[in-house]
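ok so for the tutorial part 2 we go from a plain amino acid sequence to predicted structure tokens. step 1 is just haveing the sequence, like this:
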Amino acid sequence: MRTDQMLARLEPVFARLDREPERPAHLQTPQMSRHRVVLLSATLGAYLVTVVAVLTTSWLVRLDWQIMFFRPYEQWPQVHAFLDYLVVLGQRGPTAVMVAAWLGWRSWRQHTLRPLIALGVALLLLNITVGSVKLGLGRLGPHYATQIGSAELFAGGDIFPSGHTANAVVTWGILAYLASTTVTRRVLSVLSAVVSLSVGATTVYLGTHWVSDVLLGWMAGLLIMLALPWFEPLIARAEAYVFELRELWRRRLEDGRVSEPVAAALTPLLSAGGKWQPGRTAAVEDGTPAPAPAGHAPALRPATHPVSRQHVIRSERTPVTPAGSRRPAHTERATARGASARPATGG
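step 2 — the prediction. this is what the tokens look like for a chain of 347 residues:
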């Protein structure tokens, strides 16, 4: 009863979803335009300049130490609890699950795997690019710094660039990248920028990252989003390959509904001249399988009576009287009766 009420409440929602188009006809794949190439080149240049500034212990490293000594978490402790939750928007696990759930629903509704594959490609590029720089430079964070004024490089750390910041840019930016309309893309771009800026600033407030870490994290995520149109042919090939595999397995399941061992076991049970095949009924008199009616499952029960023999109903059969009594013999009962029938003799 409760289940029926819940389904009745969800019926208008499903009806609303059914009125939506399966796949937007106006959906266009982003192209690598000249404007995008210029932004990519400028971002890449700023990325290299930031890395060199940290390697040479320039003014940027001095700014890192000044912010660290300022200790923002001690200046504004009243927002500490809120920012502890806000920084979760940059963690890869929770954000990837939320965004993948939304893109998975879109893939199911629009009958396309492009949103999920694009997310997977973006996260793979993020892990490769950001992870390699992190491990290569080995920078320590503010809480683990050992020498004042030092860049803390090649010390076994993994803090430069900021993974939280880069992940926020990519994870929330992919929603704007895959938007169906221009207005939605602009709104989601602004929302992604606000979230990524907030996450980066929060890591500086908490003292888990240097300012230069956050700057490089923003640029690392932006580079991935700007370069993603170059990987659209790879995404399209991956989607086509997955659909080809699905069709291949579907044909195999349709052709092999019953395995060969099962068919071999059913063959002796068939009548003479009959041959069982999937999708066909039992054999007729000449041994040619008759096609099954349209819309019906294949008949798996073989014919147990030869077609050449006319079937006789029960009322027309000749009664057969078995010889002798049908009651089984009881030796103990017969012996008891025989003993009681004999006259008693005196001794």
